## 1
Amino acid sequence: MDQFLAFTVVGLSTAAIYAVIGSGLVLTHTTAGVFNFAHGAAGMLAAFAYWQLAVGWGLPVPVALAVVLLVLAPAFGLFVERVLMRPVQALGEAERLVMTVALLAGCIALARWVWDPDTPRPLTPFFAGQPAVRLGPAVVTWHQATTMATALAIAAGLWFLLHRTRAGTEMRACVDDRALAGLTGADPLRAGRLAWVLGIQLAAIGGILIAPTVALDAQQLSLLIVSAYTAAVFGRLRSLPLTFLGAVVVGLMEAYLAGYLPQNDYLPGLRLAAPALLLFLALLAFPHRRLRGRDRTVVRVPLPGRRGSLLLAGSVLVLALFLVSVLSEDQVISYGTLFSLGVIALSYVPLAGYAGQVSLCQLSIAGIGAVVWGHLGAHGELWALPAAVLVAAAVGALVALPALRLSGIYLALGTVAFATVLDRWIFTLPAFDVLGVHIALFDQGSVSVTGPDLFGLHLTAPAELLVIAAGCLAVTTLGVAWLRRARFGRRLIALRDSEAAYATLGGRLLVAKVAVFALSAGIAGLGGALYGMQLQTVTADRFNLVAGLPVFLIAVVGGLGSVGTGLFTGLAYVVPTQLLDGLGPWAQNLSALLIALAGMGFAHSPSGVIARLKADWAPLGRDRPLLTVLLGVLAACWASAALVPDGGPPSLAVALLAAVTLRGRAAMREAAPVDIPPEWWGVRRPWRPEDGEVLSRATAAAS
């Protein structure tokens, strides 16, 4: 009994922290209409800032708390509301979701950049020198008592603010209808600022309270928010009392699992994954109507042409041959992963771009493809590659279960929970048998991965694996482009636009969602297997939730509806990272920070940067003489880079300069007014949409 009470006290103390953080989530969502995925990252930054002030610089604890909670946290909240969230407030839920995901990745990268993750930073609990309080057989430390008292005070204060003050009434009214609230005299901007300031302050309080009990690690502290997600979902993102109840359930569950879970090799990860597993089950169990997203995607999905798709696939192969002929073996190893990561990124196109289903667990599913190939294809057996694709597709169909009744942020939460369960439990399991079938994942370590056997040759050289990955990316790109033009692709677009209309017209939601999730997961599994081949040894850390955020963000920046997203993501992820690594250890997290900043910048431009690039470079593609000159320059630069020692960087600079110059020249020539007879329209200059109307009027006037 004494042990049970001790675990209960620990659980209630942890529950109080989850309640504080979860109440901040509910406050932001209820008043500003935004589910902040970066809420835990804000608390993490507050904990690091508190450590820096109180321990690093030796300021008194009250002064450090005052600076963090009364200066830094409100300033960060104002920054997020004014600079990041206000520009996308009028856009869809997907844009706001991407913005908060980018903020999460940026906060983690910033913390790792400023505070070396290899340096331990212990924090002393509050009132550590005071003797503990005994309540019968239970012992309560002053830190635990302070945590629970703080949670109760915050609960009372929030209830009073939201239901007994004009500011709280304004905050609740603005989330329902900002325009109507403004007509009644409310100030939506002021309500939004107040909501973000209070939400970030609550995250800061939770981060500071929990930091002394866990390692001060950027990723770990940021992902503790998953437990607060569960508490907030218990409250259905609206009810503070139910959120506190959910926090108590999660806190006690973690404490009791830590105390009573049997000790063996298979269950320790279950305790860490239990909040995410509970979140996944809660999303499935709670009433359907309450947990539906209200997102309407209005971004047009481009229809790829056959010629353009073939040109893109050919460009992938040409780029692969260029890299193999120019780079050294070490450089091929460094840059070769861009094609396999491109395949993984391409899995977002049919799922999120065509069908409008948001998933944040694609890299985790790619990890399944990698380990399946690593075990079944240990000697290069080629049949193991389609087996890895099929296993990953089966996992994707499992992920589709919450997609059958959720959308928007709730579907994103479900995929986050799934990825967290894989990271914390499934990927940490040792090998086991199920119905006589031996199953091995990472087996609590790393998995060796080799190349495939093709036509009697065992391909293991980095250049060979790079070409194989490029070929798979080219074929997959053509397949995704064909899918957009096929009947199933058109059905997915209709599903994205309106699920109700799709079902009313005879579409089968169950079949369509399971099929697109399985298809995208199969593509991710293929990319994961190729990625593992090039790494040769893979660990679970390569495929966790945080590692997948930059890939998702670059795909968003490129444009989730464009088939060129795969190649763009691979280039944008690998090339800057390799270039920045040469600057020194201080730049290791700079690339992740730049990716997060790019995600924040392009969240309010859903069409993506690829559409802009296509429009900017289209004149050069239509100008055959200048295009011929460019191809000649590129061929000469290729030959120079391959034949001249260290000729790669100068040749690349010349090629880029020539391309930019010729693109500008082509744009000027196309824009120049030229008096071309109507009979030559479409021959000497491109056909324009208004030309048909002009010719029709001229014909009518002549008759």
## 2
Amino acid sequence: MSESGGIKSFFVEIGELSLFATRFFKELFSRPFETKELLNQCFNIGYRSLLLVSVTGFIIGLVLTMQTRPTLEDFGAESWMPSMVSLSIIREIGPVIIALTFAGRIASGIGAELGSMRVTEQIDAMEVSGTNPFKFLVVTRILAATLMLPFLVLLGDAIALFGSYIVENLKGDVSFVLYFNKVFDALSFSDILPATIKTFFFGFAIALVGCFKGYNCEKGTVGVGAAANAAVVYSSMLLFVIDFVAVFVTDIFFEL
């Protein structure tokens, strides 16, 4: 494929994804509401990701503290460790890494699941039977991921701070109360709110791309694998774009 053809294909896909997102918002507010399926997807997407998010958050806290502490010790600034770690995790590291981990599990899973349904003509059968497959399959998954990821990030951040405390307690003999007093003294409303808001957009983008790739999957088993792979790659790239926009907007509104 030529360079001009690749660029054209890229913009065509961006347009199709935009139309897909527009259809989501249109179907979101139309009846009937698939409440039972939404709750089922919240369980599958949220609850079943708890272990993965917990382990990821715990390792983030451990590694960040173990890697940073020697540098602060060289400058005699160990007392700044709780403040630095909490701000790093809450503002940026926690939301982004957990969202990337979430994308690896959810985007690929949705892409493969919907792709398989498209290849085996289950989606076509739902249309023939009078069921709205877009509302049942796509809207519920996107909405569930949008709602669940912020809670998972908050949980992951809390576990990451606990992991950081364990390292500080072992290496610096810092008590639990002292450590978390310093953590909460360092954090402010302008740190927590923007970081939480952008996780809603992260969840939306991850599920949107996964559903888009799976719902429009090409025929054949090869198409299912390609849809799952593309869902992870594109959603991960989109996360960095959203994160840049979020940081840029936050800098404008909270640094005046």
## 3
Amino acid sequence: MNNYIDDVAKKKESLYRSEFLRYAVRAMYAGMYLTLGSAVGFIAANHFSGIDPVIGRAIYALLFPWGLVTIILLNGELATSNMMFLTNATYRKAIPARSAVGILLVCTLFNLLGSMAIAFMLSRTTLFSNLEATHYMYNAIEKS
């Protein structure tokens, strides 16, 4: 298992160094996929919360992970998974700490930019342009 983690971390470092733009785009896509997964979950949960709030929470919990599945299937670079891989690989001295920190900063920044870009586009849709104060999204954020 440790060899696998080291290999993945070295591959991330290689991509980061040799094809920075490609790495940055993959990180942006990951932010977009996760935001879309959240958005679909919020809309569906809001619909089902009218029936029962517990059902709305369950629906959101079932739909949100599809954003994560999309990231895995389409090779996105998510900061949280990179934190696990790179921390372990740095601890094991498979990659230098300086590289791990640089990769994490860039990945986090581009995850944020991708999330912001898709959130801006979603805010222009009819589903998200005029959310009521009772919408599931507000309630979920308020309770977290």
## 4
Amino acid sequence: MSIEELARKNVRDLTPYQSARRLGGKGDVWLNANEYPTPVAYALTQQTLNRYPECQPKMVIDRYAQYAGLKPEQVLVSRGADEGIELLIRAFCEPGQDAILFCPPTYGMYSVSAETFGVECRTVQALEDWQLNLPAIAEQLAGVKVVYVCSPNNPTGQIINPQDMRTLLEMTRGKALVVADEAYIEFCPQATLTGWLADYPHLVVLRTLSKAFALAGLRCGFTLASEEVIALLLKVIAPYPLSTPVADIAAQALSPQGIVAMRERVAQILDERAYLVSNLRDIACVEQVFDSETNYILVRFTASSTVFKSLWDQGIILRDQNKQPSLSGCLRITIGTRAESQRVIDALRAENV
């Protein structure tokens, strides 16, 4: 029996998540991973690397709880929000029996995490405006334990209608968890659902330091939920999910000064987004620039494959979304620096399509 044959069948058949780094490229303008465009400097203050770290570093938990307006017992920290996605499946879904549900076009890790554990994936295509198709979701809920809703949605950039979220929470009460993936919520903080946790014990909110906090390389995320949900997740999380340096930097980022700096970065990104959008709308090969509440925009192009390759060849790396349902002709562009935006604008103006 070969090594391949020894592996579980669902893993042999699995298509891994195609992250920006996995897709690669040789560019110098990286606008494909929704990262903050410039590094933020931190100095390590913890030197006790001979000791194992805390499972849930107290300062990180306390500061995030204060930032989110919750109790520390409602906060779990993990290796990015991606680990939170996985922990929820591990804790709540029986392989071969239960299912998760999500609504494409959306983030690709929900399916990869479920398939890895042998848990069924159900999809309900979003409506034309990329809002939830609630009647179709209701028809698919039997056997579903976890519903993932990304809001603002990646890659489309829009907030999911709050009233639809409330309807979804009512229809899943006592049946399934609803997970609001708020990776980009710092760019539209008024849309957070954290204030709903007291009313909906089956609501879970995912957060990250990768976007507005400019710490994608740190791999630090948070799961916000009822104390009961957090207690269950603590049963399945690894013994030491965060290294000491990660906890050290995360605590600094969540200090009062760190949060002020984050909000200044958000204001800067929103200004750059407005500049890029206003210029793109005058370019011949641009069919539509969709509204966004995030640090990226979705753009539909004439001959998008040609545009994508042309910019790639010039060292400008975007994210192709053509394979996502309803996103034919669409490319996703992360908001970078003014100079990077200008590179994109100039390159697109030179296109003859």
